[in-house]
């Protein structure tokens, strides 16, 4: 399975999820809004924040805002760091199953705690319940995957929907319960940073701290695990234990992140920053660092937006903020962003066409001047060059312009001539090309995959003795052309034209 | 029995002082059976591989060659069987084993460079939680130099050609300085000069008394590259010195009627005899 496709698919899942959540919010607002008495039911507008709201959030005037932003920043960073390993391990969606599977745990924890006369909405209790069913969910995925011949995506799909469905049903029952108000539990579904207090933030800090330290300590081990588990196993590394450690870190961060981001979107914290970081660098430690940074920044911006416009759930805002970072990275990333890839492809194509032009010119001049003495004033009409290859007039004139810019050719009155340096390059290219052709003809039994024609020079790929042999073959070609003709003509007469 | 013949031919080709010990067995597999889903993949494999030789494992696709190597290293569960590496269980002598997995088995899009991959061979030596240090990177560079791609040390691995990726994997095994190397198709889809470089490396390893077990696909080159062969098709059809086991009859048994290369192989054997 290729890394790219799995990354794309997990990314797509996140995007689809986000749309769904925004839709759901639209629907649920109308129901949930009945609660706040100060506002009229008809008032469903999301109002633009006032100047004083801006000031309070931007300058961190509220204690609560400070707590929330700090908590979310640390959470985002920890998730970004852990996520860089899970994404490379191609296990990103396991975290999603975990989050969804935690729903029934939250409802059940509330039920039990209320039945025992405890505070049903105490966060540690709810998170304990979430952890138990979440881990159970992952366990079921792993069992289904290893004991049946179902693939991981089927296992994930089944577990995720069954647990979430059960959870939603249980939450429905909880709402009907007479003892204790269950209002606020749905905050776990979409995320609600507003309800976060200092002790919640402390919980996030501790859990995230453990995750960060764990990742840093086991950086090298996780790297090898994600890259090549067979080799890791052959060296005696406990692959299973390492996988469990990684999973434990995911559980830790996911569970404490439920409150802030909501269980539907928490997976995005693990996927989006890493996918974005990958566009900027080819080094794992930089991917991890950048991913942590972007996770933190995305978290802060999202939580700030949610603080400014309290109707907008923080989870969705955080995901939107990190997605903005992702989109920016996707286009402008300096290592593998879309723009840089376009640019690289453009350059390669231009270079290939320039080479074709030089070689074409050389061969045309060669036909004109059998003694191959290079004359500075030898010229070829553009029309003749156009006929040598299947390029469009447009492509050719752009190629001519770029070759002119490089001072390889001169263009005068619709005829092209080679400059001194252009001639040298053209001769080298032609020789190289003919050696390759000869090689492919004389060593026809060699599989094409073993010939790396993209290499700069034939000498880098073939052994020197073989190149010598090919050179000798070239020299045995008809003597009237000092720089020998294309081997097509001599070795397989009539193969061309 | 077979080993006598092998060691004499070895000392003939080597001619050097360090001939492999007659009695030394690098790898001993006994009664090994591995089953994946419903049916066993390899049956009752029993082989003793002499130390200090180059050993080729050949067999058709699906013959269980990779599974055999993985089972030796406990990477897949065994249904039955014993494995001894230099007389001890794999666990006890794994620091003496260098593994070169199939190139296709990893994601080459992974964000690491060639030197990173090579230093992975030292992780178990470095120890848990400790970082890769300068001396480890230097050892990695030395290994890259030995396979001829030291200038590509900082290149991201997806930007390496197939042959260069294979050399990177070889360097990762070399850096361990093992005594037994298990290589899964190192010659698969590499360019001609890489193939030659790998062959030279194998010979160098052998001259230093190392044992190299190579899964190989190209029957024609088997007599040229190896001095010992294991013919595998779920069971071991034959194993022993090339001269005695690499016969048309055994190959027919291994590959069934599908083998069209038989003539070319016997030609290759004749070439080998002439060169000896």
TrEMBL record, chain A:
GO terms for molecular function: DNA-binding transcription factor activity; protein dimerization activity; transition metal ion binding. It is a multi-pass membrane protein. The chain crosses the membrane at residues 67-88, 97-118, 124-144, 156-174, 201-219, 239-256, 262-280, 287-309, 315-343. Its main location: membrane. The keyword Transmembrane helix applies. Pfam families: ABC-3, Fe_dep_repr_C. Signal peptide: none annotated. InterPro entries: ABC_BtuC-like, ABC_TroCD, Fe_dep_repressor, Fe_dep_repressor_sf, Iron_dep_repressor, WH-like_DNA-bd_sf. Residues 419-475 form the Iron dependent repressor metal binding and dimerisation domain. It is found in: Cell membrane. Keywords: Cell membrane, Membrane, Transmembrane, Transmembrane helix, Transport. GO terms for cellular component: ATP-binding cassette (ABC) transporter complex. GO terms for biological process: response to zinc ion; transmembrane transport. Belongs to the ABC-3 integral membrane protein family. This is Manganese transport system membrane protein MntB. It comes from Allorhodopirellula solitaria. The lineage of its organism: Bacteria, Pseudomonadati, Planctomycetota, Planctomycetia, Pirellulales.
From TrEMBL, chain B:
It comes from the Bacteria. GO terms for molecular function: ATP binding; ATP hydrolysis activity. SUPFAM superfamilies: P-loop containing nucleoside triphosphate hydrolases. This is High-affinity zinc uptake system ATP-binding protein ZnuC. It is an enzyme of class 3 (hydrolase). Its EC number is 3.6.3.-. Keywords: ATP-binding, Hydrolase, Nucleotide-binding, Transport. InterPro entries: AAA+_ATPase, ABC_transporter-like_ATP-bd, Metal_Ion_Import_ABC, P-loop_NTPase. It comes from Allorhodopirellula solitaria. Residues 27-259 form the ABC transporter domain.
């Amino acid at each position: 399975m290729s890394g790219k496709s799995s990354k794309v698919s997990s990314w797509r899942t996140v995007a689809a999820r986000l749309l769904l959540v925004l839709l759901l919010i639209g629907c649920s607002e109308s129901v949930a809004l009945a609660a706040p008495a100060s506002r009229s039911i008809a008032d469903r507008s999301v109002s633009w924040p006032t100047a004083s709201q801006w000031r309070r959030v931007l300058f961190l005037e509220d204690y609560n805002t400070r707590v929330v932003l700090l908590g979310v920043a640390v959470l985002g960073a920890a998730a970004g760091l852990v996520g860089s390993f899970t994404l490379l391990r191609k296990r990103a969606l396991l975290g999603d199953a975990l989050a969804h599977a935690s729903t029934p745990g939250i409802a059940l924890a509330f039920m039990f705690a209320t039945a025992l006369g405890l505070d049903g909405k105490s966060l540690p209790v709810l998170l304990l319940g979430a952890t138990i069913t979440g881990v159970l969910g992952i366990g079921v995925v792993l069992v289904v995957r290893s004991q049946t011949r179902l693939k991981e995506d089927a296992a994930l799909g089944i577990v995720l929907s069954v647990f979430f469905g059960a959870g939603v049903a249980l939450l429905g029952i909880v709402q009907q319960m007479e003892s204790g108000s269950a209002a606020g539990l749905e905050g776990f579904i979409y995320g609600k940073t507003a309800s976060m207090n200092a002790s919640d933030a402390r919980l996030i800090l501790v859990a995230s701290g453990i995750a960060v330290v764990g990742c840093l300590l086991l950086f090298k081990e996780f790297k090898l695990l994600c890259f090549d588990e067979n080799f890791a196993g052959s060296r005696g590394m406990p692959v299973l234990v390492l996988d469990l450690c990684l999973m434990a870190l995911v559980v830790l961060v996911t569970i404490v992140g439920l409150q802030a981001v909501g269980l539907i979107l928490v997976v995005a914290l693990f996927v989006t920053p890493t996918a974005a970081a990958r566009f900027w660098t080819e080094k794992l430690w930089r991917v991890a660092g950048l991913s942590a940074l972007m996770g933190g920044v995305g978290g802060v911006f999202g939580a700030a937006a949610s603080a400014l416009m309290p109707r907008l759930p923080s989870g969705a805002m955080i995901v939107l903020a990190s997605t903005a970072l992702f989109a920016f990275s996707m286009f402008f990333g300096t290592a593998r962003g879309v723009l840089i890839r376009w640019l690289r492809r453009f350059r390669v194509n231009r270079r290939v066409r320039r080479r074709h032009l030089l070689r074409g010119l050389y061969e045309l001049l060669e036909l004109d001047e059998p003694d191959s003495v290079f004359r500075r004033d030898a010229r070829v009409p553009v029309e003749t060059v156009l006929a040598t290859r299947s390029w469009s007039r447009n492509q050719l004139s752009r190629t001519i312009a770029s070759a002119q810019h490089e001072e390889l050719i001169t263009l005068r009155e619709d005829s092209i001539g080679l400059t001194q340096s252009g001639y040298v390059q053209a001769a080298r290219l032609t020789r190289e090309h003919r050696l390759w052709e000869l090689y492919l003809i004389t060593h026809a039994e060699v599989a094409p995959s073993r010939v790396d024609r993209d290499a700069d020079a034939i000498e880098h790929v073939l052994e020197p003795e073989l190149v010598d042999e090919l050179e000798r073959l070239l020299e045995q070609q008809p003597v009237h052309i000092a720089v020998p003709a294309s081997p097509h003509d001599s070795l397989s007469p009539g193969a061309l034209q | 029995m077979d080993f006598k013949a092998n060691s004499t031919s070895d000392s003939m080709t080597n001619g050097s002082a360090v001939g492999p010990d007659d009695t030394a067995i690098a790898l001993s597999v006994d009664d090994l059976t591995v089953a994946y889903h419903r049916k066993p993949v390899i049956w009752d494999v029993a082989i003793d591989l002499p130390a200090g030789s180059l050993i080729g494992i050949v067999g058709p696709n699906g013959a269980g060659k990779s599974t055999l190597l993985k089972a030796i290293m406990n990477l897949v569960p065994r249904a039955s069987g014993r494995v001894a590496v230099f007389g001890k269980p794999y666990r006890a002598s794994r620091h003496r084993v260098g593994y070169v997995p199939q190139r296709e088995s990893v994601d080459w899009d992974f964000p690491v460079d060639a030197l990173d991959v090579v230093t992975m061979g030292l992780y178990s030596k470095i120890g848990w939680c400790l970082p890769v240090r300068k001396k480890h990177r230097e050892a990695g560079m030395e290994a890259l130099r030995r396979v001829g791609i030291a200038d590509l040390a900082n290149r991201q691995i997806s930007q390496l050609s197939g042959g260069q990726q294979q050399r990177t994997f070889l360097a990762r095994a070399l850096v361990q300085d093992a005594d037994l190397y298990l290589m899964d198709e190192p010659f698969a889809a590499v360019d001609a000069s890489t193939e030659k470089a790998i062959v030279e490396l194998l010979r160098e390893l052998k001259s230093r008394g190392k044992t190299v077990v190579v899964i190989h696909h190209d029957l024609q080159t088997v007599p040229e590259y190896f001095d010992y062969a294991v013919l595998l098709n779920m069971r071991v059809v034959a194993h022993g010195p090339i001269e005695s086991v690499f016969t048309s009859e055994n190959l027919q048994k291994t590959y069934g009627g599908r083998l069209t290369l038989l003539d070319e192989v016997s030609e290759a054997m004749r070439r080998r005899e002439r060169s000896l």
